[in-house]
Amino acid sequence: MQKKAIIVSAPSGAGKTTIVKNLLRFIPSLEFSVSACSRTKRDGETNGKDYYFISGDEFRDKIADEEFIEWQEVYPGSYYGTLKSEMERIWSQEKNPIFDVDVVGGLNLKKYFGTEGLAIFIQPPSIGELEKRLRNRGTESDETLWKRINKAAYELNYAPHFDHIVINDDLEKKCREIADMVKHFLNI
Ligand code: ADP
Ligand code: 5GP
Q1: pLDDT for 60-118, tens place per residue?
Q2: pTM higher than the cut 0.85
Q3: How far away, in angstroms, is 59 Cα from ligand 2 center?
């Protein structure tokens, strides 16, 4: 089978998780790549489904043992990464992994997969709208909200390195547009 991968990256709050969930619903050959992460689990999240939640020490041991294809300290003290074992799990089901990762992680994965990877950058309509979405999501304290917004301003500079940039304004329309892009790339 063709080992093609879909990489979706964006500043936190731009809507990538919403878009990835939509793609998973409508394109059955996609399988979500569950990252390992060292932050604490939020209400409503499931270990092994949203993330493999592990401690910082465990995460650092896995880095030393070269168990990751990519990892980042996305926020100070919070590590996130894709385990080689996760890729084996997905390829063994003859599915195509779809990644929901931060911007630098997305570019690292694009480098890893080369032409077999489709890297899509989800851009918020504006920083003001990003702040509104993060506030409405209700998952952030004032401190983590500002960390995410400051980081977003910097991450927008990386957009031109992706295969496609999609401004996430009209969610339904953009989900359709991205689904068409993905199907075209996977020849389905
Ligand atoms: P990310 O995964 O990039 O951090 P989410 O998918 O969690 O972002 O989206 C952040 C918030 O914005 C969520 O509450 C989501 O429902 C909302 N959202 C996503 N896309 C849109 C959109 N196009 N218009 C308005 N709200 C949106
Ligand atoms: P959150 O804490 O909101 O779930 O995620 C924080 C950020 O980490 C998001 O931008 C998310 O996409 C990113 N992320 C999740 N998994 C990975 C990963 O495996 N690698 C990298 N580099 N970033 C990830």
Answers
A1: 999 999 999 999 998 889 999 999 999 999 999 999 999 999 999 999 999 999 999 99
A2: yes
A3: 14
DSSP strands (E only) in 22-76: 30-32, 35-37, 51-53, 68-75
Question: How far apart, in whole angstroms, are the C-alpha atoms of residue 91 and residue 119?
Answer: 19
8-57 pLDDT tens trace: 999 989 999 999 999 999 999 999 999 999 999 988 999 999 999 999 99
Q: Which of 74, 113, 123 to mutate to test the pocket of ligand 2 (most atoms within 8 A of CB)?
A: 74
Amino acid identity at 182: V
Phi and psi dihedrals of 4, rounded to 5?
A: -100, 145
Per-domain boundaries in the chain: 5-186
Nearest-angstrom CA–CA distance, 90 and 135: 34
Cα dihedral 83, 163, 151, 53, rounded to 10, equals -20
CA proximity to 125, closest of 163, 156, 168, 164: 168
Q: Quick one: fold of 5-186?
A: Rossmann fold (3.40.50)
Nearest CA to ligand 1 atom 13: 137
